[in-house]
Amino acid sequence: MRPVRLVPAAVVLLALGAVAAVAQFDRPAAAPPGHAVMPPRQTAVTSAARACPPVPGGGSGTVAFIAGPSPAASGPAGRPGQAELAPLPLAGAELRAAAPVSPEVPDALQMLAIPAAQSASKKNTQVLQGWSVTASGTMAQAMEAELTQSPGLGAVRCGEPGSDIWFIGPGQQGGAAQIQLDLMNVDTLAASVDVSVITDAGRVQAGDATALTVPPHQTVTESLSSLAGGSSVVALEVRTSIGRVAADVAESSSHGGSASWLPSTAAPSTQLVIPGVPPSGSPAGLYVVVPGSSDAKVSVLAVTPQGPYYPFGSQTEDLPGGSASYVPLTPLGGTASALELTANVPVTASVLVPGSGLGALTAATAPISEQAVVAGNSTGSGLGAALVLSAPAGSARVRLTETAEATATRASADGAVATASQAVSVPAGHTLTVPVSAPRDARRGTPFAVILTPLAGSGPVYAARVETRGQNTVVSIIPAVSALTTIPLPPVRDSYDAISP
Questions:
Q1: What structural domains does the chain harbor?
Q2: Is the pLDDT of residue 31 over 90?
Q3: How far is the CA of 232 from the CAs of 202, 332, 337, in angstroms?
């Protein structure tokens, strides 16, 4: 058997030698001094995928969906492409088949009703079911989808599939009696998932939450309540060894009420920015996880409307390695801000703002690249919407565009979409709160989308949409995440990546 195993290795070595020889004699000449290096080429996004978690408690729901750079845009074949919401049934459940939902209007916010999943074995029994959101052609550009709560208000962003996803928020001692993890697989390949749990007491043996299999086009839900028992803080890392998944975490108190969603947070880093921390009637709380074994020294800088300041003075927060911690933000005061965290070892973090249910969370994000879209916004039923924009590193200029379904008169004249826009400036080291509302020609009471576009020459900008009821009750926070219409393709260089043993 030994000769049989050696043949492929010999073939690979010969191939490598041949490629090396070709590269030696066919290598392009080095660029002369002063010659410009070819910049990355931009190509249009033509395919996108998201996944929406099951409606808490089962039942029907609504997805706020928007995609496409403009109503006049067309795909390579002269068509705007297509999009579809398709059910991701609970793994192992016998469900009645549900038909996909297809939005058809590019660049228009659409509120798409998704039906409740019905058990095929038990009459009139509703069960959990996730939904995949896929788009092609120009419908894939700037695509965004959010699972909403009445009246069309985005509660949680439908996330992209990935291989390493982080969440952090309150544990059971922090009020989260129930913690549910939803894993959705939008691909044709089964995914293998490991869930790591870190609390204020350290790492937890995940037990049944390791080597989870998520079948293609299906959903797996796991209760993590027992793993977070007795903890004040819980951090979750969802990592795949095979395939990829989208993940969401919902927490609820023992008193019932609506679930609070934990937004996914940026990967651990030595520098983070958490946007959209609004003023509230009671102090917010900072949750920080230190995944490595080394202790962390974390400095917290608040970027406020008055400028930057250190709420804890010159002192750092000393946090133990391999654990998650809670830091009260009492010194922050009653002003909107972003938090910039600087640490000596990688950390990741989120902020809980008291409000409906357990409260609303915002998490560390990247600066907006190209544009960001928040799909589900509302100013009806006593709600108010605002964007909290922060420019920690340099002055920023951003165009804000609100878009919604037009009135019948306006739609007949100019199409189905009403829009309004404004350009705003954020001084370096400052935060600016901008109220947003539906365009003047929008259909009365309809939800609206907000598109944030950094203008040429703008410094890095971070943002979140905050919905409030009354003066101080925070209902929902959606951190703004880049929704691209193009992606860069780096120049091709010599590589052996095409040959694999």
A1: 160-263 (2.60.290.11), 268-364 (2.60.290.11)
A2: no
A3: 11, 21, 24
